[in-house]
Design brief:
171 residues, mainly alpha, two-stranded parallel ribbon, 5 helices
Length: 171
């Protein structure tokens, strides 16, 4: 009878040990699978190197130069001799109006285009994060916002490449 009890005890402890090991391995696997994958990007670099930004900047600069040239021509006419006071007054009113429109264009165009660009960047970044299985993609305007990050989680260049390919319809 004693021999039967001795055989049962090691089997019981072995079973408990196996169950404990199985539970521990399961917990580790679940933890590894659920562990967040985090990356970060430099927002300034992403914004400046996104092709949409470059294109809209060229469009804005071209429009600004045209408006500025027209304003310069108006100013030159305003300062020319041989025009009547009435014409000068009309030109001055037109100059003031055009200058205000140029200033408004500068303010509005930049902010509207920036908003469009950031909307596109956020949309594409979401797709990028899903494809790369990132649970969090942090954006930093400067190194001050992130106190430390391993270079291995800086995916700025990868995101820029992805954004530009997607923008050009290649992705």
């Amino acid at each position: 009878m004693n021999s039967v009890k001795n055989i049962s005890k090691p089997t019981f402890f072995t079973t408990i040990s196996l169950l404990f090991n199985f539970l521990l391995i399961t917990i580790v696997i679940i933890h590894i699978k659920s562990e967040s994958k985090i990356a970060y990007v430099n927002n300034v670099k992403v914004f400046e190197n996104f092709n949409m930004t470059k294109e809209l900047k060229k469009i804005g600069e071209k429009e600004f130069k045209i408006r500025k040239s027209n304003l310069d021509d108006l100013y030159a006419n305003l300062n020319s001799s041989g025009i009547s006071i009435t014409e000068k007054q009309k030109l001055m009113q037109q100059f003031i109006k055009d200058k205000e429109q140029l200033n408004q264009f500068n303010d509005v165009f930049g902010s509207e285009q920036s908003a469009k660009i950031w909307t596109r960047i956020k949309s594409y970044s979401s797709d990028f994060s899903k494809e790369k299985n990132y649970t969090v993609l942090l954006g930093s305007d400067s190194n001050d916002n992130i106190l430390f990050a391993a270079e291995t989680i800086d995916v700025t260049n990868d995101l820029i490449i992805y954004l530009n390919k997607k923008y050009e319809g290649l992705n």
